[in-house]
Specification:
The protein has 2 domains: 128 residues, 2-Layer Sandwich (Beta-Lactamase); 106 residues, PAS domain (Beta-Lactamase, 2-Layer Sandwich). The chain is built from 10 helices and 10 strands. Strands 2-1-5-4-3 form a 5-stranded antiparallel sheet, with helices on both faces. Strand 4 and strand 5 form a beta hairpin. The N and C termini lie far apart (96 Å).
């Protein structure tokens, strides 16, 4: 509740009270301490009823994947003590054909002494139709099951989505890979190239180049990566499509050996005079 918010954070509270976005305050364990009027309308909870509940408890219609992602972003903001998000989520409204689609951004509430007091969650939402929601679910289904690795990052290079192929590609679980940035899985000597390509991406919105990724085991994986920059609701996102070149290199190696053997046999059968 308001009385649990230190005086030095009252400016955040005042901002929340006049904002058109939903603001939710929680402690570092994720327990709600305050909702502004927009958040109360969105969730159907008053601050008094929400106080002490978890974020997922007052958004009961969010999917399990949304619930896990919210937990991941909370762990990340506690660890880094920096702004995280936005995270896109949705849940159905009871007795309605509407789906609430929202972006959730988390901001650490740090006291003057350097102590992390809690987290301020900013929720920006809009209504979409059931038909639009089904289209989004179909796209997600296609991405999840694509044979090539696909990753989405925010403008700070944090990975916010990775399909199953991407997880297998670098050997990380979904939970682990969402703690990483795109440079984290790049080979160190390719970081300079990555920085140059990233700058080019912001100018022309698409780049494609050959590089290498580092598997969790340490194996270096030759790849071709295609980066596309998108902007939605004032936020920038990057889609990374990856081609694993290990099979191609294996084929080229076998072909080269075959060519060498062929030349050797030819020299034996038809020696030069």
């Amino acid at each position: 509740m308001k009385k649990n918010i230190p005086n030095e954070l009252r400016n955040c509270l005042e901002l929340a009270q006049v904002s058109s976005d939903a603001f939710l305050f929680s402690n570092v364990d994720g327990c709600i301490s305050f909702l502004n009027s927009v958040a109360e309308e969105l969730t159907g909870f008053t601050t008094e009823k929400a106080c002490g509940l978890g974020l997922n408890e007052i958004l009961p219609y969010s999917s399990q994947s949304n619930s896990s992602a919210i937990h991941e972003i909370m762990e990340r903001v506690i660890k880094s003590q920096t702004l995280q998000g936005p995270l896109e989520c949705n849940f159905e409204i009871p007795n309605s054909t509407d789906v609430i689609c929202f972006e959730l951004t988390s901001i650490p509430l740090i006291l003057a002494c350097g102590e992390l007091h809690g987290i301020m969650w900013i929720c920006r939402h809009m209504s979409i139709s059931k038909e639009q929601s089904k289209e989004l679910q179909l796209m997600r289904f296609a991405f999840d099951r694509a044979s090539d690795p696909i990753l989405w990052t925010d403008e700070n290079k944090y990975i916010i989505y990775a399909n199953d192929a991407a997880c297998v590609h670098v050997g990380y679980t979904q939970k682990e890979i969402l703690q990483l940035t795109l440079p984290d899985i790049s080979v160190s000597h390719d970081r300079k190239q990555f920085t140059e390509k990233w700058k080019a991406l912001y100018k022309i919105h698409h780049v494609r180049y050959e590089s290498s990724h580092r598997h969790k085991s340490g194996e270096i994986i030759p790849i071709e990566i295609s980066l596309d920059l998108f902007e939605l609701n004032g936020r920038k996102y990057i889609c990374a499509m990856v081609k694993d070149f290990r099979e191609r290199q294996l084929f080229e190696s076998k072909f080269e050996k075959s060519e060498k053997i062929s030349r050797l046999l030819k020299n034996i059968a038809f020696p030069a005079n």
